[in-house]
Design a protein that fits this description.
The complex is a heterodimer of chains A (201) and B (632).
Chain A lengths: L3 H18 L4 E3 H7 L4 H13 L3 E4 L2 E4 L1 H24 L6 H11 L9 H7 L5 E3 L8 E7 L4 H9 L7 E8 L2 E6 L2 E6 H4 L2 E4 L1
Antiparallel strand pairs in A: 1-3, 2-3, 4-9, 5-6, 5-9, 6-7, 7-8
Chain B lengths: L1 E8 L5 H9 L16 E7 L2 E7 L11 H12 L4 E7 L3 H13 L4 E6 L1 H6 L2 E3 L1 H8 L3 E3 L8 H9 L15 H11 L11 H9 L13 H9 L6 H20 E3 L5 H13 L4 H38 L5 H37 L2 H13 L9 H7 L3 H6 L7 H10 L6 H15 L1 H26 L12 E2 L7 H35 L3 H5 L3 H7 L6 H9 L3 H10 L3 H4 L2 H12 L5 H11 L1 H27 L2
């Protein structure tokens, strides 16, 4: 069973995520309440705790992220997206899209205790996302994101099987680049591309 | 019944090999991407009529980004086709299904040819092809083009390909994206395109500007995208969903069993050495040195045999009465000389090159050589035309199309003037090496390399090509394979066919033409005005004739030199003169056929300018080189 302190942590993370997803980093208390389906007491307690940690500030009826809060919220939002992507990819056609969203909402807080080995890695706070260029040789990483301004390059990379949630390994370093192993195939990759591939090691 | 079927697949998926199995060995099979940059057609007669197969370049996706993709896309949507064979790789099925789902989105009837079934099984990957066929709503036929199984079933499936229309699988995107697709679909006008509306809508959402024109109101695009709050990057989400779906289907039909992979360990050991930061380039250069060594050794041995045979043959026939006899004799002598100089080297070079290509080694060498191209601010894939240039300059020039900008294409094509093609390699080995010794041949190669660097630097400055980020262009490093010698010989023979059918008659005609000029006293008309060149090169005046004839057809160079000097080159020319001749004959746009290809690719003015400049540069360089050497 979930303990009260766990719920508090979950609600805290949810609040940070909701704030993080908002461009203005400001959300009314009302909309937080409508989005997180727990008792009001949990929400106010969570906000108090977040304020104590210096991550959010109350402004009348709204909550605003502080500078420190923005960083933390971004991490949570990213983790949420990674998981959501993961479920979109892996559960396509067995569950509906909406269900995938729901799964993500639920699982993101529990994932460290759950299922698949490499998702486990995504949920812990200790490991951080690094660009592929920083991944150690012969160490397996999981792709979390692909960041290219140009969709052409993005699509090319994805069509070659370099997609979030895939395992990836750097097999050799070559001048200004590397040879990677992903999905059973080897590719030579320049550092300028590798920089845009985020992985969890 | 007549059918037109296009073959689509990733690089290295065995596409050309399948085409080979379908229609015979007329098509050159190549393990190396960039060798097909055009769509080629081959016909097959079948029981119910005729099938025309269109071979397309290897691609991962049809989203119109690279030259290969553009060519394939054009063939898919602009040619009249009845369907497509998608060659799928059993080892990485999801990648093939990504491509397949794009073709299915365009509602083109497909048959999936499942290749590498056995090598997948060796890796413990077993694919339930019937289940896959059920999911996709299209026939899935396991094939092995090398052993020729599955080919008949594939052809039978093709004969019924039209029946799959409308029953096939399509990727479903999430609700928001599907709404957006519907909205944009309703804007597609039927006057401009017959492509499925859903497909056009997807391409619009995927930011393909070519498809914007098919909409009644382009402003819809922005409006629809604005309303997609859940998908700020809708194009990326489409690609990911498509891949996710492909991976999901692949997972559903794939059964994994554990196997020991001995082969893989060997692969890794080889790669450990060949991709080593320092060892890699050294091994690469050593390989090429070994190839040239082997070429010189084996080639000169065959040349010896052929020359002896020629002399014996010519001593048997005495035709030397009257002009006709002399001309015929000169023609025969020219032809035989040309064959013994060029044939051994060109043929063996092609065999060795094909073996390296088929073994999967070439892509590793490419990775190792890429760094050197950065001196010239060229992208890595420029190495492909340059490597092909060691075979023949003409297809190499055509393959510069795989580069991105006009400048890059032109620059790479310009570099080809200092990359010896097999005919030029034959001159260096069959003339310089044969008559002047192997060390002299080696010094011509070294001179050529220096001239390549100087020329490259000069053209880089003139074209003002800019440095670009290092991308490595994601070349795939295919698994190593043990190449089949029979296959290599067949392929080399196909590549050599032009030599036999075109060059051999030309060699004969060259000899006759020379005898004609000589008889009419016209040799001097060519020789005299060009004597400043031979003076600069310190060669006998008549040596200009092989150089001029060489431009018509490079393989004439050697035979004509022998004709004008009367057989034994080494007694007429000093080693230094042989060296100078070798350098002068090998730098520059090699021949008139290459010039034709340059005109086709870059226009008349640029092509002629480049040819003239490169030949002048070659002559200048050769003259400077011997003067520099004679100082010591």
């Amino acid at each position: 069973m979930t303990e009260e302190s766990d719920i508090l942590r979950i609600v805290e993370e949810d609040i940070l995520r909701i704030l993080g997803e908002e461009k203005s980093k400001k959300v009314s208390l009302e909309s937080i309440k409508s989005e997180i389906k727990v008792t009001y007491l949990f929400i106010t307690n969570a906000i108090k705790e977040l304020e104590r940690e210096g991550l959010v500030q109350s402004q009348g009826d709204s909550i605003v992220l502080t500078k420190e809060g923005v960083g933390k919220a971004e991490n949570i939002v990213k983790r949420h997206l990674v998981l959501e992507n993961y479920f979109k990819i892996k559960t396509k056609r067995t569950r509906s899209e909406r269900e995938a969203h729901k799964m993500t909402d639920i699982l993101e807080h529990y994932i460290s205790k759950e299922v698949i080995e490499h998702i486990k890695k995504l949920s812990t706070f200790k490991t951080e996302v690094i660009p592929l260029t920083k991944l150690a040789l012969n160490k397996e990483g999981v792709i979390t994101d692909i960041l290219f301004p140009d969709y052409g390059l993005f699509e090319r990379i994805v069509s070659m099987g370099i997609v979030p949630s895939e395992k990836i390994k750097v097999m050799y370093k070559i001048p200004d680049g590397m040879v990677i192993y992903v999905g059973g195939k080897k590719f030579a990759l320049g550092n300028d591309i590798a920089k845009g591939i985020e992985v969890l090691s | 019944m007549k059918l037109r079927i296009i073959l689509v697949g990733q690089p290295n998926v065995g596409k050309s090999c399948l085409l080979n199995a379908l229609v015979g060995p007329e098509v050159i099979v190549s393990n190396y991407p960039g060798t097909t940059v055009e769509v080629t057609t081959a016909k097959k007669m079948v029981a119910g009529g005729e099938i025309a197969f269109l071979d397309s370049p290897g691609i991962y996706s049809i989203s119109d980004r690279s030259e290969e993709e553009k060519v394939t896309e054009k063939a898919l949507f602009e040619e009249e086709i009845d369907g497509a064979i998608i060659i799928a790789d059993s080892v990485s099925l999801e990648r093939s299904l990504y491509l397949a789902s794009q073709v299915l989105e365009a509602e083109i009837p497909v048959v999936i040819a499942l290749n590498f079934v056995e090598s997948a099984e060796k890796k413990g990957i077993i694919i339930a092809h019937k289940k896959l066929s059920k999911i996709l709503g299209a026939p899935v036929i396991p094939i092995n083009p090398l052993k020729k199984w599955g080919i008949e079933e594939l052809v039978n499936a093709l004969l019924e390909i039209k029946e799959t229309k409308g029953k096939t699988f399509t990727v479903r995107y999430d609700d928001h994206i599907e709404d957006a697709i519907r909205e944009i679909s309703s804007q597609v006008t039927r006057t401009q395109t017959q492509l499925p509306k859903r497909f056009v809508a997807l391409r619009v959402l995927e930011e393909d500007a070519d498809f914007y024109g098919y909409l009644r109101d382009k402003r819809t695009i922005e409006a629809v995208k604005e309303s997609l709050i859940e998908h700020p990057k809708v194009a990326e989400d489409i690609a990911i969903t498509r891949y996710g779906t492909a991976a999901f289907i692949a997972g559903k039909v794939t059964h994994l069993v554990h196997v020991e992979e001995a082969a893989r360990r060997l692969d890794e050991r080889l790669d450990g050495a060949l991709l080593h930061a320092l060892g890699g380039p050294i091994l690469t250069i050593l390989t090429f040195v070994t190839i040239f060594g082997a070429l010189l050794f084996i080639g000169s041995w065959i040349q010896d045999v052929l020359t002896g045979f020629t002399e014996y043959l010519l001593s048997l026939i005495h035709l030397g009465v009257g002009f006709g006899g002399t001309a015929l004799e000169a023609g025969l002598a020219g032809m035989m000389a040309g064959i013994s100089i060029a044939l051994p080297y060109v043929f063996i070079f092609y065999i060795l090159f094909t073996l390296i290509e088929d073994a999967g080694l070439l892509s590793r060498y490419v990775v190792n050589l890429e760094r050197f191209l950065r001196w010239f601010n060229l992208p890595g894939r420029a190495i492909i035309p340059l490597a092909l240039g060691m075979g023949c300059t003409v297809p190499a020039t055509r393959s510069t199309r795989i580069l991105f900008t006009k400048k890059e294409k032109f620059f790479t094509a310009a570099l080809l003037s200092c990359v010896p093609c097999s005919s030029r390699i034959a001159i260096i080995m069959g003339v310089v090496g044969y008559f002047g010794g192997k060390w002299l041949a080696l010094s011509v190669f070294i001179t050529l390399f220096v001239s390549f660097l100087v020329w490259g630097y000069a053209v880089k400055r003139i074209t003002r090509i800019e440095k670009k980020p290092v991308l490595y262009e994601l070349p795939e490093l295919p698994p190593y394979r043990i190449p089949s010698i029979g296959n290599a010989v067949t392929k080399s023979w196909i590549r050599m066919k032009t030599f036999v059918y075109l060059v051999v008659p030309l060699l004969f005609l060259g000899g006759v033409a020379y005898a004609g000029l000589d008889a009419l006293g016209l040799t001097n008309v060519i020789v005299a005005p060009l004597s400043p060149i031979t003076w600069w090169l310190d060669l006998p005046n008549v040596a200009i004739i092989p150089l001029v004839f060489g431009f018509l057809q490079k393989d004439l160079t050697g035979s004509m030199l022998l004709l004008v000097l009367g057989g034994n080159v080494s007694s007429v020319l000093t080693p230094l003169q042989i060296y100078t001749f070798g350098v002068a004959a090998t730098i520059g746009i090699p021949c008139i056929i290459a010039l034709g290809m340059y005109i086709k690719e870059f226009g008349f003015n640029k092509a002629v300018l480049l040819t003239a400049a490169s030949i002048l540069y070659g002559l200048l360089f050769a003259g400077l080189a011997w003067r520099l050497i004679s100082l010591f």
